[in-house]
Design goal:
Bound molecules: flavin-adenine dinucleotide
Number of strands: 9
Structural class: alpha+beta
Order of helices and strands: HHHHHEEEEEEEHEEHHHH
Largest sheet: 7 strands, mixed
Shape: globular
Length: 390
């Protein structure tokens, strides 16, 4: 597809090199194990994170503090190669870099940045990002988690749900309404909560049928006492976590297409060798129509992703544009994965091939970082000036 759409020549030699390095790592280190991790519902985050760190993939687009300072486009291409293996691996990298590290980089004190970012970039310290609650996903402004002052300390109460890396993380970035003396209304602020703080407990979420090679947890805070400097001092209001989400969404614009590309490659390969009614499946017009339509959507998606990458590198991208990319990539990727599954017939439902694993993963990718419907409403508002959220 890259050839069909002449995408390669649009990339710089450096971007191609980063992409190829990540692709080689994925094939060598991750792909041989991914079906087993998925089947077992596990991911060896502690083992893999330092390797991702060595490659400069954690907080890759951030500057300083041991981060690679790569371009947005290069970061997107890396996400695409990781997600070509599995959305769970890309999720780990997104949460560590685009959510937890970005929150500290954007809103942390110099001391917090020095303390956490180099170790997180190296993959020695793992972070998570707790915004969603059991009753508040698409509308995080309704969150119930509260931080109140007690002398200089903060006391945190509440719970978070569906938190990637939650149970394995050394530090949780937790968003809560902070009740501060002298303020008429509580406002959302970010808190750094180290694992092991008394009153902070985590529970791994099992029985997932999607993103099985990713660790997801519920977090509970029961009178968790934190020092004054646990708050991210520059975080003020819900716009702070939303700005982090925007960074992670951008990675998904590229990432989801990696999963789609992997499915299409598997389907083409299969169709060439599978004989039905005495000739290869690939020779039938119906199959070719499916493959052609999928290649078109994949190519168009990749061109849009690249365009958005260039806009982001010029600091010209808007939230609506990221929404458009996230909506398009995830929606088309899941459609492609499901169509590829049909080409593989019964074999397509097994873990011997990647297609249903990707399709199932993409259910989560369609839902997190703003559901498809939320992005439709963001675009709808931009098109009509009418705010459907109110
Ligand atoms: P809801 O908000 O309850 O939505 C249910 C349905 O209603 C959806 O179809 C939605 O689109 C629709 N809907 C919502 N509002 C409207 C509306 N106004 N009009 C029409 N339809 C609407 N969160 C974190 O904070 N950190 C993480 O690390 C994290 N990791 C995750 C990992 C996985 C595997 C998953 C599945 C989720 C993760 N999430 C995480 C949570 C994720 O961000 C939420 O699931 C998501 O925001 C949707 O929230 P919800 O599940 O509560 O669905």
């Amino acid at each position: 597809v890259e050839e069909l759409f002449a995408i390669d020549p649009l990339l710089s030699p450096e971007e191609r090199e980063i992409r190829d390095t990540v692709a080689a790592f994925g094939e060598r280190r991750l792909r041989p194990h991914i079906a087993d991790w998925f089947e077992e519902g596990t991911f060896p985050a502690r083992e893999i994170a330092p390797e991702l760190g060595k490659l400069g993939l954690l907080g890759m687009h951030l500057e300083g503090y041991g981060c690679a300072g790569a371009s947005a486009t290069a970061y997107g291409l890396a996400c695409q190669e990781l997600e070509a293996v599995d959305s769970g691996v890309r999720s780990m990298v997104s949460v560590q870099g685009s959510l937890a590290m970005t929150a500290i980089h954007f809103y942390g004190s110099e001391e917090q940045k020095q303390r956490y970012l180099p170790a997180m970039a190296a993959g020695e310290t793992i972070g998570c990002f707790g915004l969603t609650e059991p009753d508040y996903g698409s509308n995080p402004g309704g969150m119930r988690t509260r931080a109140r002052r007690d002398g200089d300390d903060w006391v945190l109460n509440g719970s978070k749900m569906w938190i990637t890396n939650g149970a394995v993380a050394d530090v949780a970035v937790v968003w809560a309404y902070a009740e501060e003396p002298g303020q008429d209304r509580p406002r959302v602020r970010g808190f750094l909560v180290p694992a092991g703080t008394p009153g902070f407990t985590t529970r791994e979420i099992h029985r997932k049928l999607s993103l099985r090679a990713s660790l997801t947890a519920a977090l509970d805070f029961d009178d968790v006492r934190l020092p004054a400097d646990a708050v991210l001092p520059e975080s003020r209001g819900l716009s702070s976590p939303l700005a982090c989400l925007s960074e992670a969404r951008f990675g998904i614009v590229f990432g989801a297409l990696g999963a789609a590309r992997d499915c299409l490659a598997a389907a083409i390969d299969y169709a060439r060798t599978r004989e039905v009614f005495d000739k290869p499946l690939a020779g039938y017009q119906l199959t070719q129509a499916k493959l052609a339509d999928m290649a078109l959507e994949l190519g168009k998606g990749q061109l849009l992703a690249l365009h958005l990458g260039r806009l982001k590198d010029r600091h010209e991208i808007t939230g609506e544009q990221i929404s458009a990319g996230k909506l398009n990539s995830t929606r088309e990727a899941i459609a492609i994965a499901r169509e590829c599954r049909t080409i593989l017939g019964a074999n397509g439902i097994t873990l011997d091939y990647p297609v249903l694993r990707h399709a199932n993963n993409l259910e989560s990718v369609l839902t997190y970082e703003g559901t498809a419907e939320v992005h439709q409403l963001i675009l709808g508002k931009a098109l009509t000036d009418a705010d459907a959220f109110r």
